[in-house]
Write a structure and sequence with these properties.
CATH superfamily of the largest domain: tm_1862 like domain
CATH architecture of the largest domain: Alpha-Beta Horseshoe
Strand order of the largest sheet: 10-11-9-8-7-6-5-2-14
Number of strands: 20
CATH topology of the largest domain: pyruvate-formate lyase- activating enzyme
Strand content: 15-25%
Structural class: alpha/beta
Shape: globular
Bound molecules: iron/sulfur cluster
Length: 463
């Protein structure tokens, strides 16, 4: 199958379009959510949840054997075995709690383990949690069982356990294979071990292997990035996510270990980005949504072409109609027009679940305007198009009237050849696909405080 090629932008265009903007894993974005006074709203949402809508379950495990200097995740260094035992107990308690509010047994079609490093849990801790899940839910036979892994800390025995347990999607954080870059970001991940790890996964017949790459890391240059791309292509993952390094040392203590003088300047960062996407296209990967690339035969690429891709906090998915219930500290649920985030720190999270309280810390119930805009923004980010008739019939509105203020704001993007706006749709062009966040931004009613308070939140750059 031949990939559908996007048209790679010029460096000048990249420079122009590089602004701070939300990533829209949710809409409205987290900074505008409220602090939850109680867990009452989430309990109500769960009580009213229809079993017709299957569930995705996300488990967050906030431990790593050591902390990488560049990391932006909610995680901490694992100090002793007792920590994962305590955490696994809390996860089980949270499963029981969630189940007690649901009116009936619900079908689960996707289970995703992220972190942190989920493989820090011991085998018996995984087994106990998965057994409880099967007791509490109808887990589909073909359910996706996905996990984020680090080949350097996930032993062969642990990998064999995960494969034998039925994990069928693996995501590997690669970031960069260059030893100097790795040293500067506090990682040590050899190509040989990563290759061996991928080989074992493939030999087991796993359907999906994803790599995460990061550009803009200290000491990265075009030569090193080119070498990393050759090695990545050699390992043949099905999907690749490419992220820009977000350097936020005021928010992330661990990032203060980074030598700022070695972080590539903006110009080099753009070059690294352009090299990465060009090499991915040359290797036959198709760009899907934003930041993600997949082999043309991968189901995400097929869903992109068929305009039925969806997005949630774990990334892109073909599971269009699931609600997400997230378990573990800091994890984020997305259920029936309601979002909530769990308590971030482990100790209060434990206290809450053991006291029989859903551990909700922040939340928002979408109003009608949020729901309409979320649909438009997600359609743009997932499929590069918002078809007016689809929105009109779903919400009983006239798209052109409803977005009478927003549509003229697209004019500069139209002039740059990034957007086509006609009677049928707002659609990203083949170059506009690289700037979906810039397009979606215009439909965000909270950005710049247009609706609700201006939170002054810091967003990452679009490039
Ligand atoms: S392994 Fe991943 S989650 Fe853990 S510290 Fe490193 S980047 Fe963060």
């Amino acid at each position: 199958m031949n990939p559908v090629m996007a048209v790679i932008p010029s460096k000048e265009l990249v420079r122009e379009m590089d602004v701070a903007a939300p990533r829209y894993t949710s809409y409205p974005t987290i900074p505008v959510w409220s602090t939850a006074d109680s867990c009452g709203s989430f309990a109500e949402v769960l009580r009213g949840h229809s079993a017709d809508t299957p569930l995705t379950l996300y488990f967050h495990v906030p431990f790593c054997p050591s902390i990488c200097h560049y990391c932006g995740c909610n995680t901490s260094k694992l100090e002793c075995d007792a920590q994962t035992a305590e955490y696994a107990q809390a996860l089980q308690q949270e499963i029981r709690l969630v189940r007690s509010f649901l009116p009936e047994r619900h079908r689960v079609t996707q289970i995703h383990w992220g972190g942190g490093t989920p493989s820090t849990l011991k085998n018996e801790e995984f087994t106990d949690i998965l057994n409880l899940l099967h007791e509490s839910f109808d887990v589909a036979e073909d359910a996706e069982l996905a996990i984020e892994t680090n080949p350097m800390t996930c032993t062969d025995a642990k990998l064999r356990f995960l494969l034998d347990t039925g994990f069928n999607r693996f995501s590997i954080g690669v970031q960069d294979f260059d030893p100097e870059v790795q040293r500067l970001i506090g990682r040590n991940q050899t190509f040989a071990r990563t290759a061996e790890f991928c080989d074992a996964i493939r030999k087991h017949g796993v359907r999906s292997l994803n790599f995460d790459l990061v550009y803009g890391l200290p000491a990265q240059n075009l030569e090193k990035a080119g070498e990393t791309m050759s090695r990545v292509v050699e390992l043949g993952p099905d999907r690749i996510a490419v992220y820009s390094f977000a350097f936020l040392p005021n928010l992330r203590d661990n990032q203060r270990n980074i030598d700022t003088s070695l972080i590539p300047g903006t110009d080099m960062k753009f070059d690294l980005y352009l090299l990465t996407i060009a090499r991915l296209q040359e290797a036959g990967f198709e760009m899907i949504g934003m930041d993600h690339y997949a082999k043309p035969e991968d189901e995400l690429a097929v869903a992109w072409r068929e305009k039925r891709l969806r997005r949630n906090f774990m990334g892109y998915t073909t599971k269009a109609e699931t609600d997400v219930i997230a378990l573990g500290a800091t994890s984020i649920s997305d259920v029936s027009g309601y979002y909530c985030q769990n308590i971030k720190d482990n100790a209060p999270y434990f206290n809450s679940v053991h006291a029989g309280r859903l551990p909700v810390q922040r939340e928002i119930t979408l109003d009608r305007d949020d729901t309409i805009r979320r649909r438009v923004i997600m359609n743009l980010l997932c499929n590069g198009i918002a078809v007016k008739q689809d929105i009109n019939s779903q919400f009983g509105i006239s798209f052109d009237d409803y977005f009478a203020l927003e549509l003229p704001r697209l004019e500069p993007l139209i002039e740059k050849g990034l957007v086509v706006h006609d009677a049928r749709a707002v659609e990203a062009t083949e170059t506009g696909r690289f700037f979906l966040r810039n397009i979606a931004l215009h439909f965000d009613n909270y950005f710049d405080g247009r609706k609700g308070p201006n939170t002054g939140a810091t967003f990452s750059r679009t490039v």
